[in-house]
């Protein structure tokens, strides 16, 4: 699903630091790319079709980088030698189509930034668990004393850090949208956690298109590089069989023993990247609990062993890690009812993981922008664990259709306050109110963080 079918001649000239670089999108990645492009001597222009926030406006003004907001002026964009675009801009956007027609290379901030660093890159992708695994990996590497940065879909932009820091390693959380605009980029260590239906609206509603996008994580890898993947994930195995990666492969599994990689034996994880150098750890000692987090911990553990970190350091870091905000985050216990914020669950599979880890009856708050969701995979868990569904979104018809036979109560709400109040009234002592939307947030909120923060504020007002 690449937006770029042009030649690389412009790219080569752009690398010398002469020529015009246009950046589409003035968020974290766009402004970071602008900083790096300016530092490398390019003529830089930033264009955002939406409103640029005050924070990013101020950053661009401070550097005297010209920009425009709420429009894309073709005369200022179509004269670029190269364009760096925000991952959120789809290939169907009119300005992107015109750039492709004119054979102007369109790349991601990650692709651009990698040209200017010799740091080793640990690149983590997957439909679910990317942020948790990236943060855990970064936590282990930092604790081990490595000079490491964290970037990509998380934290400060990769380009901004390349412009101002001198890290020897980067842990990069990489989305399929980023991968679509990465061409010459190579991951030293590539991690594929899983492939489940997500963002299918961007991939012609075809899982195979989305899977092909995810597999770009291994492009340009050689036999000297490393590829870590889940041997229990059918879609990953299917996609891998089509690509046949050449890097050293380390699978992880909780159902079968693997020679090199990671596997679960009863309640003990075994991680080994060389035949006689094994790390073992009880799953009860992991900071992250739940089946999905065993997978995430295994992936991070393999990365750590590949980098030859000490077993003691890996164990200690896996045991004291604190998970990210908005991912199964405990908010409060009110009148014996637990409130959990899992706003980062923007697809069905994430919500499945959240429900699977629940040990009490659940009042589930879900809904938002449906990305072509198939709710069938949730039906058994909803039947066995969910007593009521509180919809939080503008259009909840598909949720009603999917679950009307499985739960007695399905209620529509249109704000975090209303959702929290109604869920509180539907729950009783010992129950859990779980915000795990399975949908994007853009109908009622700025993003999943805004949705999670509004939910937490609403819970604290109860």
From TrEMBL:
Domain Mur ligase C-terminal, first and last residues per copy: 326-439
Principal location: cytoplasm
Binding of ATP, residues: 126-132
Enzyme Commission identifier(s): 6.3.2.9
Biological processes, Gene Ontology terms: cell division; cell wall organization; peptidoglycan biosynthetic process; regulation of cell shape
Enzyme class: ligase
One GO term describing the cellular component: cytoplasm
Pathway entry: Cell wall biogenesis; peptidoglycan biosynthesis
Mur ligase central domain boundaries: 124-302
Membrane-spanning ranges: none
Keywords recorded for this protein, A-Z: ATP-binding, Cell cycle, Cell division, Cell shape, Cell wall biogenesis/degradation, Cytoplasm, Ligase, Nucleotide-binding, Peptidoglycan synthesis
Residue ranges of coiled coil: none
Keyword Ubl conjugation: no
Classification via InterPro entries: Mur-like_cat_sf, Mur_ligase_C, Mur_ligase_C_dom_sf, Mur_ligase_cen, MurD
Reaction(s) catalysed by this chain's protein: UDP-N-acetyl-alpha-D-muramoyl-L-alanine + D-glutamate + ATP = UDP-N-acetyl-alpha-D-muramoyl-L-alanyl-D-glutamate + ADP + phosphate + H(+)
Location in the cell: Cytoplasm
MF terms in GO: ATP binding; UDP-N-acetylmuramoylalanine-D-glutamate ligase activity
Keyword Cell cycle: yes
Family under the similarity heading: Belongs to the MurCDEF family.
Database matches in HAMAP family: MurD
Stored PANTHER family: UDP-N-ACETYLMURAMOYLALANINE--D-GLUTAMATE LIGASE (PTHR43692)
Role this protein plays: Cell wall formation. Catalyzes the addition of glutamate to the nucleotide precursor UDP-N-acetylmuramoyl-L-alanine (UMA).
Name of protein: UDP-N-acetylmuramoylalanine--D-glutamate ligase
Organism: Pedobacter ginsenosidimutans
Organism ancestry: Bacteria, Pseudomonadati, Bacteroidota, Sphingobacteriia, Sphingobacteriales
Gene: murD
């Amino acid at each position: 699903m690449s937006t770029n079918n042009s030649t690389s001649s412009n790219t080569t000239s752009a690398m010398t630091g002469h020529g015009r670089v246009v950046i589409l999108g003035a968020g974290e990645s766009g402004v970071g790319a602008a900083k790096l492009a300016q530092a490398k001597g390019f003529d830089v222009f930033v264009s955002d079709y939406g409103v640029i926030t005050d924070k990013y406006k101020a950053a661009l003004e401070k550097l005297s980088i010209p920009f425009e907001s709420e429009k894309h002026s073709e005369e200022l964009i179509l004269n670029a030698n190269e364009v760096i675009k925000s991952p959120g801009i789809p290939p169907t956007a009119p300005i992107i189509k015109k750039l492709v027609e004119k054979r102007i290379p369109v790349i991601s901030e990650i692709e651009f930034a990698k040209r200017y660093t010799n740091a080793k890159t640990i690149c983590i992708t997957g439909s679910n668990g990317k942020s948790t695994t990236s943060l855990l990996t970064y936590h282990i590497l930092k604790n081990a004393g490595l000079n490491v940065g964290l970037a990509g879909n998380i934290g400060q932009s990769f380009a901004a850090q390349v412009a101002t820091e001198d890290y020897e390693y980067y842990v990069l959380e990489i989305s399929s949208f980023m991968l679509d605009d990465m061409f010459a980029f190579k991951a030293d260590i590539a991690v594929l956690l899983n492939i489940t239906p997500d963002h299918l609206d961007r991939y012609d509603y075809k899982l195979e298109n989305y899977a092909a996008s995810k597999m770009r994580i291994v492009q340009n890898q050689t036999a000297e590089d490393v590829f870590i993947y889940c041997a229990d994930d059918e879609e990953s195995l299917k996609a891998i069989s089509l690509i046949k990666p050449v890097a050293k492969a380390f699978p992880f599994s909780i159902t079968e023993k693997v020679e090199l990689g990671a596997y679960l034996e009863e309640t003990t994880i075994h991680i080994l990247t060389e035949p006689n150098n094994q790390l073992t750890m009880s799953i009860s000692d992991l900071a992250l609990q739940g089946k999905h987090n065993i997978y995430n911990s295994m992936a991070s553990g393999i990365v750590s062993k590949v980098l030859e970190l000490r077993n003691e350091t890996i164990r200690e870091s896996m045991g004291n890690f604190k998970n990210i905000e908005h991912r199964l985050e405990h908010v409060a216990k009110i009148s014996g009812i637990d409130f959990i914020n899992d706003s980062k669950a923007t697809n069905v599979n994430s919500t499945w993981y959240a429900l699977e880890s629940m040990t009490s009856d659940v009042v589930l708050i879900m809904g938002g922008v449906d990305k072509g969701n198939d709710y069938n995979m949730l039906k058994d868990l909803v039947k066995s664990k969910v007593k009521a569904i509180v919809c939080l979104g503008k259009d909840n018809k598909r949720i009603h259709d999917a679950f009307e036979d499985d739960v007695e109560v399905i209620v529509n709400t249109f704000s975090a306050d209303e959702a929290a109040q109604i869920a509180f009234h539907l729950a009783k002592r010992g129950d859990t109110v779980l915000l795990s939307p399975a949908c994007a947030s853009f109908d009622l909120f700025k993003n999943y963080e805004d949705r999670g923060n509004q939910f937490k504020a609403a819970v604290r007002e109860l």
